[in-house]
Amino acid sequence: MARRTLLSGLSAFAATALTGCVGGSPEKRHIRIATGSPTAVYYAVGTALAGIIEQELPGVEATTMVTAASAENVELISNDQAEIGFTQADILVTGTTPDPRIAALARVYDDLLHLVVRDDSPIKSLDHLRGRRVSVGASGSGTGVTVGRLLTVAGMGQPGVVTQEKLNLDDSLRALSTGGIDAFFFSGGLPVTGIKQLSGNTRTRIVDLAKWVSAMRKEYSDVYVVRDVPASTYQLPPVSTLAVPNFLVVPRSMADDLAFDLARMLLERRDVLAVAHPAAERLDIRSAVATLPVPLHPGAADYFKSVKP
């Protein structure tokens, strides 16, 4: 398949372009990448992707946006306030039909739900969170949505059963280390840098959540699966937990040529993304196309067809 040109793709992609000129030269075109916490995976991979875009697409300025993560990112994409966003798949399947304004660029890796406690904590299972102060993820995060569903299937979603604090990852790390909370949840690809740093400074544990996956699949979606957190990840005892696929999404209105180039960069420059964070090592063409129920953007689909093994 002939290589699409950047110029034709970006000319149709009005949301990323500034139309003015300075001194007779066109201003740079902009691509905004909605990520998450600065100490989590989305931001690390998104920052690396921004660098690749600027290297590969002359005249384009790519910037990362610090956000609450998945739910906020989807809203930003839907409202044309970002051009690329990271999101958990479960954020996109809250209804029977995916939002027609959103298309997937690729499936990147799986997010694993971490329930982190201090090593001397009496909390050994999800049930032990009753009466405890727990960070359930920031408002607008994928963590918050997943945890809300998990507590509901466990019969713990009613007000007062768990004292819920809506903290982002950085605030959760600080609060657990100082005793401000008893536990926190965070959903991210392995390893989550902030959790790894915490485990090096404060004796912690990760609570096994595997027993709740079947209930989550039955009640909400079969996007939920069981994944292992090996001992080597955080130098902690291994556990199994709830996991959900992670997608890069874009506006459905994005020009096919640009979506083609972005998908190409993900696969061709995977080594650079993996240096930024090991989770990107899991990106390959077979898993990248598995984005149902969210359709691939036609431009991305064209790229994957062109390199199909």
TrEMBL record:
Domain of life of the organism encoding this protein: Bacteria
Gene3D superfamilies per record: Periplasmic binding protein-like II
Pfam families linked to this entry: NMT1_3
Protein name: TAXI family TRAP transporter solute-binding subunit
Taxonomy of the source species: Bacteria, Bacillati, Actinomycetota, Actinomycetes, Micromonosporales
